[in-house]
Design a protein that fits this description.
Number of domains: 1
Helix content: 10-25%
CATH class: Mainly Beta
Oligomer: single chain
Mean pLDDT: 81
Structural class: alpha+beta
Strand order of the largest sheet: 1-2-3-4
CATH architecture: Roll
CATH superfamily: Pleckstrin-homology domain (PH domain)/Phosphotyrosine-binding domain (PTB)
Shape: globular
Length: 152
């Protein structure tokens, strides 16, 4: 393998909060960057705005649903970064060189992921175990990766 070959080393489902609703995504970790691929959107009608826990509860519901809604959807080729990015015009990549820091915050039920780049701040939530997310990111982010554990 040469340095010029980009390979997907892992992937996991996440949820991103929108001003009205939420977005189901998959993060593909490659040898060069993180690919953000759109899976589905939940509209404003499904958002409980009375509390943060209500919004997170909806998000967790979306994450659980995303695993069940694969039938009938165009499947992403999870081994080809070019195909992942071209599968949806809203898919995008975050180069490791553009990342300032990534913070993983473990709570009893979810892992919050905050990605700070040179020009943006992105927040995701996943039900994936912290150790899996950490192993996927630590090799490429080194000292840019911070981990916090919140105990309940």
């Amino acid at each position: 393998m040469t340095d010029s070959v980009e390979e997907v080393v892992g992937e996991f489902s996440v949820l991103a909060k929108l001003s009205l609703g939420s977005q189901r995504l998959r993060l593909f970790v490659t040898t060069r960057r993180i690919l953000v691929a759109h899976v589905g959107k939940r509209g404003a009608g499904g958002v409980i705005t009375t509390s943060l826990l209500g919004r997170l509860g909806d998000g967790l519901e979306d994450l659980l649903k995303s695993g069940r809604e694969k039938a009938g959807r165009k499947k992403l080729d999870s081994h080809d970064p070019h195909r992942i990015l071209s599968a949806n015009s809203d898919n995008f990549a975050i180069g490791y060189e553009d990342i300032v820091k990534v913070e993983l915050v473990e709570t009893p039920s979810i892992v919050a992921i905050e990605v700070v780049t040179r020009g943006d701040k992105l927040e995701f939530f996943t039900m994936e175990k912290l150790g899996i997310v950490e192993r996927l990111l630590e090799k490429h982010l080194n000292d840019k990766l911070n981990i916090r554990r919140l105990t309940g």
